[in-house]
Description:
398 residues, alpha/beta, 4-stranded parallel β-sheet
Amino acid sequence: MGLNDTPLGERTHIAFFGMCNAGKSSVVNAVTGQELAVVSEIRGTTTDPVTKAMELLPLGPVQIIDTPGFDDDGVLGEKRIQKTKQILNRTDIAVLVVDATLRTREQDMDLIRLFQAKEIPYIIVYNKSDLLTQVPQPQKQEIYVSALHRQGIQELKECLASIGKGTKQKGIIGDKLQAGDFVLLVVPIDQSAPKGRLILPQQQTIRDILDTGAIAIVVKDNELQQTLNQLGTPPALVITDSQVFDFVAKTIPENMKLTSFSILMARYKGLLYDAVQGVAAVKQLKDGDTILIAEGCTHHRQCGDIGTEKIPNWIRKYTGKNIQIATCSGMQFPEDLTPYALVIHCGGCMLNEREVRYRTKCASDQNIPITNFGILIAYLHGILQRSVEIFPELYQLM
């Protein structure tokens, strides 16, 4: 996978914040080397977040986000500010752009407090330093630049790269494998499978296995038994699509370790611990309760869709209750989760870890249990403990 093909969920999200006319867009254009954002002397030119996936040397694949002015006026201004706050939920590195001739104002301090509250690494960029008679000595987490004259821009990039080193994610499963291990991956090819390719969690898992020096063997579900019969060495682990979890669990020997792509993604994105705890809430569901099924991507739903058809049907069959279903997708995750008895989240492959952790914290803060597709399906089919056997630290939660 090339840098241009790196999924958004794997890119470092760098968001630029600040007051109107502080020069955010000019700094963004200088950093990216592109006319990414419209620059104007007219206050509030940036009306919506502008995003761009690109390679930013020396950091690597990034998602650049230019946000509207935080001191925007009027009803539309309030909506833009709200959108800016939503951007914080997926920001790995925050860049606060300040007009160097005005220094920090109270609204700037409000943003800094938001960064700190959300534990987002940040840097304060004093733009328009060419207008100062003398540039002050920068304090920690500060840098002086002139976007107009490209002064200090390379130093800013290096600062971002230094901060970004601490945002890199762990591997998906490689830490649980040894070089030479056989890993059997069960990938059903049905109507919901994308034509001509594997879905992202499958691609990422295969790559992580190969990087470890283990051997990935990919089969369709109807080829599983034949493959097991022909393998001279039993696999160290079987990883399956959650939709065929029950079939695979019954097909492979009891002593063979088993998990799913969705469970691995829950671990990768920081949701696994909460997901295992939250799934027990299924037993407490009552007639009329509403469940929120949240997916990080938007896609065309087909007959037999996992989120809107299969999971609701499995839950209703398991509980025997009249359960109501609400859905959300993409970045439209509700802040108020109190209408819901349970949140069931997808693997989150299209979201970065910070966004998934934000959603998990929203649920935790409101005392709403949250789980994930793979954990839920394993639980409903009575194989949860087996599916997380490779993570013994979770046993105390079950």
